[in-house]
Amino acid sequence: MDGRKVVAWAARDTTGFLSPYSYTLRKTGSEDVVFKVLFCGIDHTDLHQMRNEIHSTNYPLVPGHEVVGEVVELGSEVKKFKIGDIVGVGCLVGSCGECLSCKSSMEQYCDSRVLTYNDIYKDGSSTQGGFSSAMTVHQRFLIRIPENLAPEQVAPLLCAGVTAYSPLKQFQESNKVFKAGILGLGGVSHLAVLIAKAMGHHVTVISSSDKKKEEALEDLGADAFLLSSSATEMEEAANSLDYILDTVPAVHHLHSYLSLLKVDGKLILVGVAPKPLQFDSVDLILGKKTITGSFIGSMEEMQEILEFWANKGLTSMIEIVNIEYVNKAFERMERNDVRYRFVLDVAGSNLE
Ligand SMILES: [Zn+2]
Ligand SMILES: [Zn+2]
Fold this sequence. Notes:
By secondary structure, the protein is an alpha/beta fold. It has eleven helices and 17 strands. α9 (281-285) links the parallel β14 and β15. It is globular. One zinc ion binds at residues 95-96, 98-99, 101-102, 110, 112. GO terms for molecular function: oxidoreductase activity, acting on the CH-OH group of donors, NAD or NADP as acceptor; zinc ion binding.
C-alpha cells in the first residue's frame, strides 16, 4: 500500500512561483512517523532552492524546513512518539548513522545527510518539505515540542534558531559576561540577539543601516548598536568583542569586523555568501583571532534550544500568514519587509 495523498504548494520552474500540487507520501516504514503539518517557517534558503540557485533543483519542489505538526500515524517500531504528539522537523530527515559525525551527535555534518526537501531519500524517493498537508519522517529526525511552547513560536527555532544556538552554546557555561556582536538583523540574527541576551551576554547589534537601531535596542533588548558604515563608531569599538556571529549571506569584507574582536576573539560565519570573502592575514595573526563556521544544529541541539526557549520564557517575532499569501511573503522577505520571520499557518489554510 502506498502512503497517503497530500496537498502541497510547489515551485515548478526557476521563477520559484508556488502553486498547489498534490503527491503521495512514501509508504509508512516501521520507524516512520506521519504528521499533519500545522505551521511552517519560511526562509531565504527556500527561495534559493525554489529558483535553482544552490544546486540543481528537482521540480516540482515543495519547500519548507521549519515544520511543526501533529502525529497522525506511527510505524510499527515507533516507541518515542504517540498519536496526537506535537513534533518538529528542521533541515534534515536522514543521515548515514555510521560516520564519526553521526556517532558523535553531529549528524548535520554527515556527508550522506538527507535534506528535508530537494534531496533523495534512502529508498530513492525525492524528499518534499513542509508546505504540505502532511509529511512522513523517520523518528530519529523528529523532535518533541514541549507542551508549554506554542507550535507557531517553535517553527523558526527549527532552522534559524538552532543555527544561532549551536555556535553560541559554547559560550553558555560560564560566569563571564561575554561581549557579543551580532552582525546583520534578520531571521537568524533576531533570534541570536534573544539567545545571547538570555545567556547573559552583553550584546551589540552591528548593522550598516541605523534604521535598525531602534528595533535592536528597544524591541530586541540589545545592549548596544554599532553602525558599521560609521568609521568613528567602528574605531571606538575596536578590540571590544569576544565573538561576532556573522549572519550576512552576502559578500562583505571581513577586515573591519575582525578589528572589533579582542585578542583570541572568534568570528563565526553562519550566512552563506555567494562568492569568497576577504580578510588580511594580519587581521588574524596580530590578535590570535579565529574565523570559523557553523551549519544549522544537531538533533540534540534542536531539542535543547526548545528547552532553553521554554525555560527562559523567550518569544520569537513572527508574522503568521496563510499559504495563499506565500508568494507575496517571499517577495516581502526578499526586500527585508518582515519582522523577522514569516510562519505559514498550513493547517489553517485552504491548500487547494
Ligand atoms: Zn553519517
Ligand atoms: Zn533555513
